[in-house]
Amino acid sequence: MNRRTALLISTIGFCGLYLAAVVVLGTPPGINDQGADVVKWLQQHHDAVRWSTWLTVLSTPLFASHAILMRDWIAGTAGRFYLLGCTAVIILTSLSSWVMIGLARRPESLDPAIARTLLDVSAYWGPTLTAFTVLTLGPIAWVSLLDHRLPRWVGILATIAFAEQVIETITVFGTTGFFAAGGPMNTMLGAGLTVLTWLVAGVIAARRTDPVDL
User: Fold this and answer.
1) CB-count exposure of residue 14 (10 Å: 0-12, 13-18, 19+)
2) Is 181 left (phi over 0), alpha (psi -120 to 50) or beta?
3) In this predicted structure, what is the pLDDT of residue 105?
């Protein structure tokens, strides 16, 4: 397999599996739902949590492959920042998944207060992840807007996503609604913009990569 094909497959593959994991999971309990509601949701959706976690596990090697190949394509210090950011994303996502899959293992025996607390821990995946997603979005903006190796519109998209992620750090303080930790700003707006930027950057970079063997 050559580098062009590997980057294309790994980029589209991890994005597709991530989307599938989100769809399978459905809408988890909100940040203001009571512990009893969390337990009830886990009892009704424990299989969905397992399937979602499995899809996330399958996506991880593909995302790691994408990160390594993009690091080589971006090159230099910017490429090292990209790889560091992706590595941290993998670690934090795995930690958050551990909490969710652990809660779903024996939902019938869960204490509501403990379930609520552990889900809160998992919810802070979003606010803390922003510190590392910016390390991936910055290099994409750099090679697009300054180095002109990707189309300018990709750089604009990366810049918008970068700015959103910086603003999203305020969800550390959020307790209700859109700006809550684990709320729509984390799980929908921020995640959507970031994954979309990774997708388009990876696909276009693949088309501009020399088709040499790995």
Assistant:
1) buried
2) beta
3) 93
